Amino acid sequence: MSSPPIRAVLGALVLWSAACERPEKQPPPSTATTTGPASRETVATVAPTLDVARLDALFKPLPSRFESPTSVGTPAKIALGRMLYFDPRLSKGQELSCNSCHLLDKGGVDGEQFSKGHKGQLGGRNAPTVFNAAGQIAQFWDGRAADVEEQAKGPVLNPIEMAMPDPLYVLRVLRSIPGYTAAFAKAFPGEKDPITYDNFGRAVGAFERGLVTPTRFDTFLAGQREQLVPAERDGLARFVSTGCANCHSGPLLGGTMYMKLGLMTPYENTKDQGRFDLTKNEADRMFFKVPSLRNIADTAPYFHDGSIKDLPTAIQTMARLQLGKTLTDVEVGSIVVFLQSLSGKPPAEYIAPPALPPSGPTTPAPDRT
Ligand code: HEC
Ligand code: HEC
């Protein structure tokens, strides 16, 4: 059964891997033609071919910034947003900043299943990375904030996160810090009263829109195919042929749509119903935003409930829940290798903690109650 289709597949494989030496692991053609249960492992060692033409339809290189259509990211606005991002005085106890749960030197996450907020309270969802978040259709696991500008206004007032009592209190704090009066005026020139809660969101958003993490995958997509080593390209081919890219596509490999978690096999933890809890629409039960897979190797634990500790388990679980497939360890490992190529960092100077403006005489004291 040395069938032509198999030879065609192997031929294409050789083309795909052209110019790069493949490791000696490549099985002889005959093993790929065996059938029956035993062949599954063997066949799995032969990477599927990648339709290069489909790549451009499925993925896009990251832009240098995700620019807002309504709020231009001027240097003054970005610099102000950076200070606000790192400023714990925007929390009731003055112990928590955005960077407490989304550490910019740790992949934009805190590595916890659930983050500790005001007085150590735990939320019910895993904190996603802020890296590239601005490029998604919406923010939060359920998409309840339209963009990063709107999102930023949430955690500050969330009683189990930064726990500020109301927007006016936030503005009182900001106005009490002389350096912020000057920085808001510079960031929002011509505005009579630039210190507003919306402008707080706009400044933080402007900063987040530059938290972009391009990697070799982007130069690969731009045409420099040698930027991914053969094992990474095999993993990419596996990722596409398995069906992962049906949902995880676009520049972020995710963030473009909502999907039911447990499409083929129900998800066990139904406590959090995702978008249904927001819309009360039956059709939205267990629908969550398809998360970005950029930097995924750095953002464990996984899933909205942070219940999955490592990447291989996340991949295997996805295949089962979303595609009704069981992957071999070799297949999972190959996808891991590809996903690892998606880890990048924003420029070091962009995420360096800034000097914060000193408090003024009327700046409220921390409230740990
Ligand atoms: C106490 C921990 C905590 C703090 C402090 C915090 N966050 Fe979050 N953040 C979370 C959690 C948890 C979620 C997910 C909540 C959800 O989806 O319902 C989240 C979600 C987000 C998202 C959405 C990402 C996505 O992929 O949908 C962004 C962006 C974000 N936070 C930015 C910020 C900014 C900016 C600040 C400061 C103003 C901040 N966070 C403060 C824990 C925190
Ligand atoms: C039908 C759509 C769909 C398909 C197909 C799919 N996913 Fe997902 N993926 C999702 C959704 C939705 C989530 C969010 C899960 C949650 O809410 O906990 C997710 C979450 C993930 C996560 C965890 C992300 C995080 O930040 O916690 C990883 C990793 C992942 N998918 C990888 C894959 C891989 C690899 C494949 C192919 C084997 C795949 N996915 C196939 C929709 C899909």
Short description:
The chain is mostly helical and 369 residues long. It has helices at residues 4-16, 29-32, 39-44, 52-58, 75-86, 98-101, 148-157, 167-175, 178-187, 197-208, 216-221, 230-242, 275-279, 311-323, 329-340, 348-351, and strands at residues 258-260, 287-289. The protein has a two-stranded antiparallel sheet.
Number of domains: 2
User: Which CATH architecture of the largest domain is right?
Assistant: Orthogonal Bundle
* Strand residue content: under 5%
* Secondary structure: helix percent: 25-40%
Order of helices and strands: HHHHHHHHHHHHEHEHHH
**Computed Rg:** 23 Å
Shape: globular
Taking the alpha carbons of the first and last residues, their distance comes to 75 Å
Discrete helix count: 16
Major beta sheet summary: 2 strands, antiparallel
CATH topology of the largest domain: Cytochrome Bc1 Complex, Chain D, domain 2
What structural category arises from helix and sheet content? Answer: mainly alpha
The bound ligands are: heme C
Annotated CATH homologous superfamily of the largest domain: Cytochrome c-like domain
Mind telling me the CATH class of the largest domain?
Answer: Mainly Alpha
